[in-house]
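Chapter summary example: a protein plus thiamine diphosphate.
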Amino acid sequence: MASLSPERLDALAEHANDVRQGIIRSLLAAGSGHSGGSLDMADVFTAMYFELLRHDPKNPDWPERDRLLLSCGHIAPVRYSAMAYAGYFPVEELLTLRQFGTRLQGHPERVSLPGLETTSGPLGEGLAQGTGMALGAKMDGADWRVYVVTSDGEHQCGLHWEAMMTAAKFSLDNLTCIVDRNFIQIDGSTEDVMPLEPLADKYRAFNWEVFECDGNDIGAFIETVERAKAVKGKPQVIIAHTLMGKGVSYMEGDYLWHGKPPKPEEAETALRELHAARELIGANRG
Amino acid sequence: MASASLSNAAAAAMHLIDYADPAAVKQVPTRNGFGEGLVEAGRRDENVIAICADLSESTRMEAFKKAFPSRYIEIGVAEQMLVAMASGLAATGKIPFIASYAMFNPGRSWEQVRTTMALNEMDVKIAGAHAGVSVGPDGATHQAVEDIAIMRVIPKMTVIVPCDSVQTKQATLAVAARFGPTYLRFARAESAVITTDATPFEVGRAQTFRDGSDVAIVACGILVYNALVAADRLAREDGIECRVVNNHTIKPMDEAAVVAAARDCGAVVTVEEHQVHGGMGSRVAEILAAQHPVPIEFIGVQDRFGQSGNPQELVEEYKMGVSAIYDAAKRALRRKQSRT
Ligand SMILES: Cc1ncc(C[n+]2csc(CCOP(=O)(O)OP(=O)(O)O)c2C)c(N)n1
Ligand SMILES: [Mg+2]
C-alpha cells in the first residue's frame, strides 16, 4: 500500500489538533465529561473520519458507508469533535455538549444525532452489535466494513468476550476492533483493577488476527488499519497504545483525568499548548 | 418565618429538621450516607465486606476500602461477576455489599440477582448509585428509572429508597444487621437533608412526615423533600392539608400505612424518581385497588427515557418538581370531591 505523503500527514496532524481543541472547548462548556480518553483517541478518530472511512458527512445514512461504532461511549467528545470538523454538523454545536435539549448527549444516542450507529455508554456492548452488523453485511454480500472502538477497561465485561467468540465463529474479516490501550480505568491501572494482560495473546487464542501500534501516531495507525483490512477469514483487532490525556501536558498519563472536564484556567492552558503544538506541525518535517 | 411544618406534630415526632427554613436545609448526596453507613457496618460486623465494579469514588465505597483494605474487593467493569461472586462469598458467611450504578447493577446483572441472590437466598446487599434523571448530564444511558420495577417483582427481595443521606446511613446499617437479599437505591445529586439521627428508621415501616387528611402524598427518595414543600404550599395558599408519607421501603411495603393514608385522606398522590409504570406508585395502586380504592395521581417519569441536563432542569422537565406535585394534589382532591 502507498504510504502517506508528509504533506498529507501534516494535514491530518492539523485535523487532530482541531479535534483536540474541540474536545477541550466542548468539555469546558459542558462543565462535566471525560477528558482523558477523549484526548488520547483524537488521532484514531481523525484517521478514521479524515482518511479511512468510506462515508459521506452530508448523507450519514448512506447504506454503503462503513460503520464506525464507539463502544466506550464516555469518550463521546472525541467522536463529536471529529464529526463536527469532518462536516457532519456545525463546529459551534460542540458547545451544547451535555446540555439540556442538545443532540450531543452525555453518552452518544443513535436516535439523537445522525451518524452514530449505536447508543453507547454502558460498557462492553459495542463489539456484540458490531458483530451483528458485520454478519448482516456478509449475509447481504455487502462490502462495507465495521470498525468498533473499545476501551481497555471494557474488556472486563463478559459480553465483549462472547462477541469475540462469535465474530471468530463467523470468520468476520469485515470487522476490526480497535482497543484504546491506555492502561487506565476509573479506579486506577487496568492491571491493578483487573489485569487484562496478555491481551494480544487472548485475542489470538480467540482466533483473531492481532495488530499493535502507537495509537497516537496517525501514520502508523492508518498503515496498521490497511494491513488489518487485507486479512482474510478472520476478524482483526488493533491494540492501539495511547497516552491518556495526550496533547495536554498536565493530563497525560493521569487516571484522575478519566472523568472530569478542565476548569476555565486549565482549558486555557490546554488550548495554549495545542496552539503551540499546531505551530510546530510543518516545522517537524523540515 | 415560623415553620408551618414544625408546628406539625408529625414532623416533630419524626425529629425532622425545620425543612421550611432554607438556611436549615443542608444539601448532601444520599450516596454519602451509604459510604458512612458502610464503614460503620464494617466496624460492627467483621463479616461485612465490600465489592466494587470500578466506581469506588462515585459509589462512596472508598472510605470502606481505606478502613478495611483486606475486606474490599475490586472486580473491574463486570457487574454480572459482581453479583454472582458476591453470592458465592455470601455462601461462606460473608455479608457482601456490592456497588455500581443502578443502571448496571441491578440493570445489567438482573438475572444473576434473581437466581444467585434471591432464588438462592443469599445475603447480598446491592448499592445502586446514580438512580433517577437527577444523574444529570451523563444522559439517558446512565439514568436508571426502571430499577425499582425490576427489583420489586423479585420474590424475597427487599427494596429500599431512602429519602436523604442521613436515612441512607440508617438504612445501610439496618440492612447490614438483617438477613436477606436487598436493594438500596441512591441518587448522585446533592439533595435536601430532612431527617436527623433521632428520626426512627425501620425497614418496612413507612413514616408520616406531615399530618393532614385532605390528600395523602406518598413519596420516596430525594423527592420526599419536594413533596413536603408542595404540601406546605398547599396549606398556605389553598388551605389544603396533605399527609406526607415517606414510603422508603418499596418491598415489603407498609400496606397498613398505605391503606390508612387512603382511608383517612380519600385521595393519593404518589411521588418517585422512576417510571410511573411499575414503580413505588404502581405498588401503592396494587394495594389500594385490592383494599381501598381511591383516586390516585402518579408523579414520576411518564414512559420516557431521560436525557442530558442539570438535575433541577430534569426534575422539572419530567414533572417531578414542587409545582407538579402541587397540581397533582389538587387534581386528586377534585377527583375525590367529584366522587362524593
Ligand atoms: C457497564 C458499565 N459499568 C460501569 C460503567 C462506568 N464506567 C464508565 S467508564 C468506566 C471505565 C473506564 O475505563 P476505560 O473504559 O478504560 O476508559 P478510560 O478511562 O480509559 O477512558 C466505567 C467503569 C459503565 N459506563 N458501564
Ligand atoms: Mg482505559
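Key point: Strands of chain A lie at 67-70, 146-151, 175-181, 184-185, 188-189, 209-214, 236-241.
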